[in-house]
Amino acid sequence: MLRYLIEKEFKQTFRNAFIPKLILVFPFMVLLVFPWAADQEIKNINVTVIDRDHSTLSKRLSEKIGASTYFNLAGYADSNDEGTAILEDGKSDMLLDIQPGFEKNLMNGDEAGVMISANAVNIMKGGLGSGYMSAIVQDFAGEIRAERIRIFGKTELPLIQVISKGCFNVFLDYKVFMIPALIVILMTLLCGFLPALNIVSEKEIGTIEQINVTPVKKFSFILGKLIPYWAIGLFVFTVTLGLAALIYGLIPKGNLLTIYLSVLIYISTVSGLGLVISNYSSTLQQAMFVIFFFMIIFILISGLFTPIASMPQWAQTFTYFNPLRYFIEIMRMTFLKGSGFWDIRQQLAALGICAFVLNGWALISYRKRG
Amino acid sequence: MKNNSQLSILNSQLITKRYGDVQVLKDVSFEVERGEIFGLIGPDGAGKTTLFRILTSLILADSGQATVDGLDVVKDFRELRKRIGYMPGRFSLYQDLSVEENLNFFATVFNTTVEENYYLIRDIYKQIEPFKRRRAGKLSGGMKQKLALSCALIHKPTVLFLDEPTTGVDPVSRKEFWDMLKKLKMEGITIIVSTPYMDEAQLCDRIALIQHGKILSIETPEKIISGFPEKLYQAHSENNYLLLVDLRKSPKVKSAFMSGEYLHVVFNGEADETVPNLKEIAPTIEDCFIYLIEN
User: Fold this and answer.
1) Is the domain of A263 the same as that of A282?
2) Is residue A157 part of a domain?
3) A225 Cβ contact list (under 8 Å, min separation 6)
4) Is residue A147 part of a domain?
5) Which of A234, B51, B75, B246 stands 20 to 30 A from A301 (CA)?
6) Which of A11, A206, A212 sits opposite B97 (nearest CB)?
7) How many CB pairs under 8 A join A and B?
């Protein structure tokens, strides 16, 4: 019985004008387009320098900044007002104000003043830009100091240099970080929301009525809906895994078996969520809207873009109820850190609980309304 | 009662259903005999579809009991679903599957094959067979309806429920459809059909007139007609509407209503000979139905 239901579902899916294309296009989009679009590294920040010192060292600092890949030297301004005007016009993103006596103070070992102002309308650009800029100025100061030691052979202050190393993602590659998380979104759509929409459309068209007068059990009917999407989900996951290895050389460091096991648990969680939604919606429009709502909330509090640790406490509490959060953590840990089953046990347990609650809810609400 | 249930294949007792404030069905009781074509005749909103959905185990009644082919529609719904065929008023087959695939699919979910019961649907199916690779959604209205009937019959049900099968179908196809029903009756299938068309009532063995969720009368069409207690006249004039207004004002007239190009009139006592083109006629089911509603 189940076999015929699944057969029918596959026939319909591949006959659909849209879904098979979507299944093909999705992995490519996720791998080829999204990682670049979701890149939050800031490059090409335009800097205007107000040089009030006009010295060799101030010149050297400006050139050092211009030489960095993060900054473009947009030009020079003579006064604070002129600099601010340039910032306001949007011709420049940052101002570097080098105070008079910069060289003299630096050579004497006194405090040398530099002021950085950034256009913070784009918080990301402003914040990161000032961060990078401070780092360059610090580095510059270190260089000067090192030269002085070489020339004068004396050490006045101990020089501490901080070297940071990105563990597990050595080059701090944003794409490597995003791809495992984007796969999560893909699985959520394919295995959670597509079957939900499919069930609701049977309700809307009325075909469910004709099925209900046959001896087909409700359980078989639902399973007949889910299994094809699970199969499609696993297929797409495997393709994505292969493409990520081919295109970016991103090969999961963790055990593939552990990864597939997590995928299976996650799939059962999201399809439970999909079923709950389908039970409460009688039209596609309703279902779509509810899915939109959940999708946006879940993505925003999943740690996909912004780290959960930097959210306010109440928002962090919310993330505990978000299955996406756990699966994104699992994927990043297994892909990048090579975490094993034991390392991700908490996340897996949390997903298991979500799966149990959602599927139980789906079952109860289905009985009530069926 | 025991004897009765041997004869009757469907037994509905005091079925009641309410949606919010609307009483859709009020104490509906009736019996259908094995092998007859039973018509449920009533206007839109009379509760026909709701009654069908209760009898086919799709929804639960608020109170009352019903058995179909000896099976309780609530307790034995699983077994019941194997024995009934239901064709909803709205086309509910898979539009993106072909004619052939729909038929095969419904045969397999009933654990049978198309070949096994092909003799039942042969006359119907051979008319749509030339289009068997066409998607169901692309069929014309009449062909859709033939496919739906084939799918409802493919598991050789003992009782066939047809909810307004001829609504929106052209007169020729309607006639063909009723011819098919007569053939199915020969095969021993009990048919329960609902329709808003009074002319189709004549084609049933027995009919129940239903209005506002209540059954007004259950009889054979002949008995319903012969039970019409008054003399019925037809009349017409250049302006039927004015005539109708005049007739309704007249104290001699008991009831008057339009029926096609004529007015049908029932008088209090003797007929008023001044009415233009007056002629006594035999009542139809429609006349009886309107008479029952008005009185």
Assistant:
1) yes
2) no
3) A5, A9, A195, A198, A199
4) yes
5) A234
6) A11
7) 57
Q: Are residues A281 and A335 in the same domain?
A: yes
Best mutation target, B93, B96, B159, to test chain A (most A CBs within 10 A): B96
Residue of A nearest to B90 (CA): A206
**Is A348 in a helix, a strand, or coil?**
helix
pLDDT, tens only, B196-254? 888 888 899 999 989 899 998 898 988 888 888 888 888 888 888 888 888 888 888 88
Q: Are residues A268 and A313 located together in one domain of the fold? A: yes
Residues in A touching B110 (Cβ below 8 Å):
214-215
| CA quadruple B81, B85, B91, B93: dihedral sign | positive
Chain B closest-CA separation from residue A229 CA (Å): 18
B94 contact residues in A (CB cutoff 8 A): 8, 12, 207
User: Which chain A residue has its CA at the smallest distance from B60's CA?
Assistant: A370
* CB-based contacts of B265, cutoff 8 Å, min separation 6: B232, B233, B234, B235, B247, B253, B255, B256, B275, B278
Angle subtended by helix axes A218-248 and A256-280, to nearest 10: 140
Amino acid A158: pLDDT: 52
Residue B3 in this model has a pLDDT that exceeds 80: no
Q: Which residues of A touch B (CB under 8 A)?
A: 1, 4-5, 8, 11-12, 15-16, 205-207, 209-216
- Domain extent, residue A23, equals 2-38+170-369
Mean pLDDT value across residues A250-262 = 91
- pTM (two decimals): 0.79
Among candidates B194, B141, B136, B207, which has minimal Cα distance to B172? B141
Contacts of residue A354, Cβ cutoff 8 Å, sequence gap at least 6: A269, A272, A321, A323, A326
Boundary-marking domain end, from A125, A152, A179: A152
Give the number of domains in chain A. Answer: 2
At B154 the pLDDT is 93
pLDDT (average), residues A32-59: 82
Helix intervals (H) in chain B: 2-7, 48-55, 77-83, 99-109, 118-128, 141-153, 171-186, 198-201, 221-226, 240-249, 285-294
- Residue of A1, A205, A206 lying closest to B109 (CB–CB): A1
**Contact at CB, B105 and A8, closer than 8 angstroms:** yes
% of chain A exceeding 70 in pLDDT: 93
**Quick one: closest CA in B to A212, which residue?**
B58
Domains of chain B with CATH codes: 2-225 (3.40.50.300), 229-294 (3.30.70)
Angle, helix A123-152 to helix A56-67, in steps of 10 degrees:
130
The DSSP bridge partners found for residue B256 are B265
| Integer Cα distance of A348 and A365 in angstroms | 25
Is the pLDDT reported for residue B295 higher than 50?
Answer: yes
Work out the minimum CA distance from B268 to partner chain A, whole angstroms: 49
B46 CA: distance to closest CA in chain A (Å): 21
In a domain, A296, yes or no: yes
Q: How far is A7 from chain B (nearest CA, A)?
A: 9
CB-CB neighbors (< 8 A) of A203 in chain B:
none
